[in-house]
Amino acid sequence: MLKRLSKLSVVFLALAISTSALAGCGKNNGQDNTAKENVPQIIKYNLGVDPKTLDPALNAAVDGATVLSNAFEGLMKLDENDKPIAGVAEKWEVSSDGLEYTFKLRKDAKWSDGQQVKAQDFEYAWKRALEPKVAAEYAYQLYYLKNGEKFNKGEAKAEDVGVKAVDETTLKVNLEYATTYFLSLMAFPTYFPVRKDIVEKDPEAWATKPESYICNGPFKMKEWKPKDTLVFVKNENYWNTKNVTLDTIEYKMIEEATSALATFRSGEVDIIEQPPAQETPQLLKDGTAKLYPYLGTYFYCLNLSPNVEKVDPAAAKVIKDPKVRKALALAINRQLIVENVTKGGQIPAFSFVPKGIPDHENKDFTSKEYYKANGDVDAAKKLLQEAGYPDGKGFPKIVLSYNTNEAHQNIAQAVQDMWKKNLNIEIELRNEEWKVFQKTRNTKNYVVARHAWIADYVDPMTFLDMWTTSSGNNDAGYSNPKYDNLIDSAKKERDLAKRTEYLHQAEEVLMDDMPIIPVYYYTNIMCTKEYVKNVRKSPLGFVFFDKAVVEKH
User: Fold this and answer.
1) Considering just the CA atoms, what is the radius of gyration of the chain in Å?
2) pTM for this model (two decimals)
């Protein structure tokens, strides 16, 4: 999660709108039976940390999404260009007004215990994710369903939600408004099916144990040793299992980049991502690592929720001043960070929506630069003075939190130094283990926190609707009725040009209020052993193993 402005990285990001990358790609298509007979089909992939949860309704992180996308399958799945294709649904019909979808499920779709995947499983899963007491962060992702938001807010009943199993193989879906990317959403983990009998038998722990983790994708859980290894094996009941060559995925939990690279070099791990920044240039040069597109933004989140008053009253006062937030943003030299700290082809962020996300004309949605790549110290100092803190005088020390990781630490230290040098303000750095940090951020028990967002689908909305007041992923506690109305208008607008304009206006409001400070746009660095073929890294952050194969070595 690091990189530098270059023609190469711009090209990669542009490619993200039409293609994803095959790590170790070659002529072998993953269905080579000879290879399977002679070579153990096992891939050891460093996931980095234990997923906070593997419950499709509750997961909100890329690590969990990678595991989920290989364990489950939605109505649709993504092809090599990240376009939606048939998954559990073998065919579908859409009404002329775009408000009603009818999906026909394939009859050979099975759960890992052999039972048939039914339309009722989808209806149950979606309504469960919207159930208020479940408190799913991604519940808002199902607000596209008729009465989905109302049910989530306790204003409607479950039976009012626009999803209904007509019979075991027919699912009817009604939307609040026509959504051009709805089929892409059907491949997203929050829309995956789960079985009512499995979940309700053990609601708290069903997704932690192999015996109860019943899934419907190409791989199923065999073993989970926290902070060590998560093992998935081929699911023989998957409808397309004959085209899956890989037998085992061993997800490793090696958090430190230096240690992960050491295990890769020793052969203990076959694939790692995001190697140490200081090693990245040489790894790219000698071909050990490759640069892949990644539709994401690395940023800092500013806590504007009422809870920040309890965390630090003095800090709350300054953080809630938009002039202070803008000063902090302008005082960062992003070019320096991507060139000297992250060193992996990243692009300095000048807005929140990253390069590579298309608008209605298939042009880059991101066109306006809200600040310079090397910052604007004079403007930052002026804003801080106007806020009542000339040369940082009277400005309280604030805490910047991040999850334990040497890359995040290096970036935080660089920002700390810039804010001290450019604004004369003191910043205390605080690191926490990943699960603890996630809770800290989700409960808004922080002042400034590291954050990142990877696209859920290829549309600007995936970066912008998360900041509406009701969004479960709004970790800033940001609320602006004008912004909410613009996002709502964009969702309802069928004229694509007008929709794009609404989204541009919304981002304008967001960047003017500055509840977040974008730092850079991601690229992804992956080291893959040469004998591993056809592992697909999507610009959306997922890693797919269904076509992977291990060759002789």
Assistant:
1) 23
2) 0.85
